[in-house]
# Entry
Amino acid sequence: MKPPILLLLMVLCCDSAIADDSVPQEADYYPLVRFEVPEGVVLEASSFQLMPDGRMAVASRRGEVWMISDPFAAEVKASQFSLFAGGLHEILSLAERDGWLYIVQRCDVSRLKDSSGDGTADQFEVVNDDWEICGDYHEYAFGSKFDGEGNLWITLCLTGSFSSQVKYRGWCVRITPEGELIPTVSGIRSPGGMGANAAGDIFYTDNQGPWNGTCELKHLIPGKFVGHPGGWAWYDEPAAKASMGPRPLEPVSGSRFMTEAKRIPEYEPPCVLFPYKKMGQSASGICCDTTGGKFGPFEQQLFVGDQTFSTVMRVDLEQVQGHYQGACFPFREGFGSGTLGVEMTSQGAMFVGGTNRGWGSRGNLPFAVERLNWSGKVPFEMLHMHAVPGGFELEFTQPVDPVTASDLASYSMQTYTYIYQSSYGSPEVDHTTPKITSAKVSADNRKVTLLIDAPQEGHVHELHADGVRSAENLPLLHKEAYYTLNYLP
# Structure
């Protein structure tokens, strides 16, 4: 047996190694505030909306809407929560316009108002209920904020996540300001969230399953097909015929995304593939940083939740040959429950809602309402990863050490893709290991042009930059990037 004093020294040494204060941590840059929820309330926070009077509306999967007073306080207590509305059906999205709070629930889009001023909703109006439900547990409906024309975009999960037994399951529809439903995009499988980029284009997350090899970020373009043909029966509906035209060619099971994109003109491949069990397993909510630097250096980038990993990822998009594609990066882990709704406010705060009912999550709480703030410190990160002829241009948030950044040994890369097939999910396939041939540092030490011998169309390019250091000799906070190279520049 080891003497007790030696055991104590071993424990202290292990603790010291685990909590090395010299190594930057995510919390140094983006501290997390967990809100105290009223006792006895199960608030599976699904979505948020900042109201004109400064309160934050938060919806629950349990069919309630709560209002949080002073949501930007250093600590948020249970006394700051008040019930605004209840008795609704799994609200997954909120938006505000002209004094009305719009909700997207399983069965419809409705709007609520407090006309008496007592803090609770007393007017409830159905805006549109032209899609159908058959009672399946998986018939989720996610909505966007209002677009530039005043429309709400809604993605409707397939029945049981596999088939479309009732109208418009497996579709994206738009609800106009007049309450009309317009069939807009086919091919939805199992959405997890929606959001717009800084240009106002609408995106949604879809999850691994049939015709989805892994979780994905997809661009919703009117008239397009985004992957899963299970809902194609509704092309025969008069409204779909008017807005969409004839159904596309049937995809070939066992093919690849880009092979089918070249064969099927209506098919828009995923913008970003989130590598399974590396970046997450259940992609969820989307928000965009349009705060003008109040949330740090990631202006106009998207942030995407993952329910299983209890994380928020970061996505850097660009357009190549007229299509969005780009890189995803780790951003922040450690949320209390499974990340579902994310909301960025103009004040520079990100609100994050969590739930683990129905699925497990790394965060072991049954629900959570949380907020991320920027500490004012700039982390050393890969800010951008853009495709260039023959490779990629990396841009960093801080100047790099030119010696380590120009050393080819500081980097490694592999590529792979996923099978586009009717069976559930896909392993990584078609692996290659490109040779990195050049790493040229820019004059200002902010960028590195990384050339490789064989870029692979349609592949995720998984980059590890373990050896790169900053000018201040810091390692990257996150050393991995995953670029989906659908189109070559």
User: Anything to note?
Assistant: The CA atoms of residues 99 and 237 lie 34 Å apart. The first strand starts at residue 32 and ends at 34. Residues 382-485 form a domain with the Immunoglobulin-like fold (CATH 2.60.40.1220). The chain has five helices and 33 strands.
